[in-house]
Structures are given as structure tokens and as C-alpha cells.
Amino acid sequence: MDKHYWKEIDVLYVLGILLVILGHSHSSDWSTFDGTPLVSLIHFIYLFHMAMFFCIAGFLFQNSDSLTRKGYPHWLKEKALRLLIPYLLWSLLALFPKYYFEHHNLNGLTIDYVLTSLFCPRQNIWGHFWFLPVLFLTYALFGCWKYANGGRPPHAWQTTLLLLLCVGFYFLPLHATLLGLSDLRMALLFFLLGILGCQVVSRQEKWIKHCVWFFGSLVILMVAWFLRETAHASRALGLPVAMLMILAWWCLASYTKPLPVVTWLSKNNFTIYLFSWMFQAAMMEVCAHFQCGWLLTSACMFLVGWLGPVVLILVFDRLPIKNCRFARLAFGFR
Fold first, then answer.
1. What is the pLDDT of residues 20-56, one digit of tens each?
2. Is 201 exposed, middle or buried (CB count within 10 Å of its CB: 0-12, 13-18, 19+)?
3. 9 closest CA partner among 301, 305, 226, 267
4. pTM of the model
5. 54/39 Cα distance (integer angstroms)
6. Which residues, including other chains, have CB under 8 Å from residue 178's CB and lie 6 or more apart?
7. Left, alpha or beta for 150 (phi > 0: left; psi -120 to 50: alpha)?
8. Could you give the 3-state DSSP secondary structure of residue 315?
9. How does pLDDT run across 104-144, given as a tens digit for each residue?
């Protein structure tokens, strides 16, 4: 159960999904749009868009008392079902047809290849699925920490120590792909920043609303955009730029009154995340077949990345399986 409803989270979810779809709206052959503004835009988006999702997850984790109510084992089981069922199901279902489509045979489809694609998330058949096991590991670690504290707010020294550990882990030269350990560096730090952000705005909500200026947000956006190319190649500079961007989006969201469509999209953001790339991959092949230019390819992929999952959600709600728990978990519904 959430302690407080934050309209800003709905806006951030929709912005995040928009950035994910936009960041995937390009041909897998980068030479087809090399030197175009699309390259700079993708580099800019990848600086912060997934960090923002982990930050949101940490914010909602802090804003919820479900862990203390349900107990750590039951709470973690629910997280595993929600995140790992779609990860395993759609990865396995897509494995054979996607491999055959790319290689025109199944000769290299060995047990080692299958295990690698599942346990090394970045090498999964759906690349963006790395987010799911990494988020689960993040929940498992922070959930254990919170449960050990009995759900009470941690002492200042505990938070400081954990922040130092997360920052140190973030800058650790780790390149392990097993279980997404390299991505876990970013996930843990921004999840913790989301927890701290929730504590700040919960205590200082009126102060935040009066002291955060709309034009200040635009300045942050411009600074981050100016630093985008350097930050893309520098982990040290990429961290503050990502933090600035997340802060900027929060500030902008605080001035926004979400429309019903924004609330609906936010509610279904997980399903959209799961299936957007599947529709985009199909559109990419269609555009490649007709030799469409990079701009038309990106526009079509962006459009179908939204419309495909939305139609899927609307159709699912009219099917008898909508009440089946496994089906709801598989399609990303609560």
C-alpha cells in the first residue's frame, strides 16, 4: 500500500517509456544513420532513461509499506513472479524463431547459447529485458536491508555507509555480464537515490513546490544536453548528468496535471516496456525490406512501439484470459 500518491510518478513513467521507445527507434545497422542528429539524441537518452526507472522504483519502494506488511519472503516472491515470469517466458518463446530469422538455421543454438542468453541479460534475445533480472536483484538486496531494519527509517550513518558503498560499486571497473552485475552498479545507486529523493520530498513537499522553478528545470536540461557527448564516454561525468536530468524531469512533472491518458499509460507502463521492442523489431525488418531512409524508419518504429502495446492491452482486456493470474503476469499486468 502506498503511503502517498505522487502524480509526478505517473508523468515520469510516461516520459520514461517515451524515451525507451524513442531510444529503440532506429535500425540495428547504425551505419544507416551515422552522422545524423539521431546518434546524438540516442546517446543523450541513454545517459539517464534507465537510471530514471531505477530511481522511480526506489522512490516507490520507500513510499510503500508492502514489505513490512507481507514479510520479506512473500514480498520477494511477488517481485520474482512479476519480473521473472515475463523475462523467462518471452525470452524462451522468442528464442528459436528470432535465432532462425537472424541466422537462417539453428546450428549454433546450443545449450550454452540458451543458458548465456538467460543468465547474461545483456545477451538476451530481447536486449532490453536486462532490466527485469537486474531490478529483481536490486529489490532483493534493498528489501533485505529494509526488512532487517524492521521497516523503520535507517539511521543516518547506515544511509551514509550504504550511499558510499553504492557510489564505490558504481565506479568499480566491473565488466561481468553474468546476472547483469555490470548494470547492477547503476541500478543500486539510482535505486538508493530514489529512496533518498522520496524522503526529501515527503518531508519538504511545500518547500519543493515553492522553490523549484520551471525555468530552472530548462537550464538543467540545457546543461545536460551540452555535456551529453562527453558524459556518454565518461562514467564520472555521466553520473551527475543523469542526476540532473532526473531532477529536471521531476521538476517539470511537478508543474504538470496528468491527463487521464497519462494515468492510463502509467498504469500500463510495464506492459508497454515489455512489448514495445517486439513490435519495433518487426517494423524495423519491414522498413529494411523496403529500404526506407533512417528518418522514416525511426518514425515508423516509434509509432508502432506505442500503438502495438496499446492495442495489445486493449485486446487483452476483452479476452477471457484477463482473469488468469499467469496470463496477467506474463503480459505485465498486476
1. 999 999 998 899 998 898 998 898 898 889 999 999 9
2. buried
3. 267
4. 0.91
5. 24
6. 119, 120
7. left
8. helix
9. 777 777 888 888 888 988 887 777 899 999 999 999 999 99
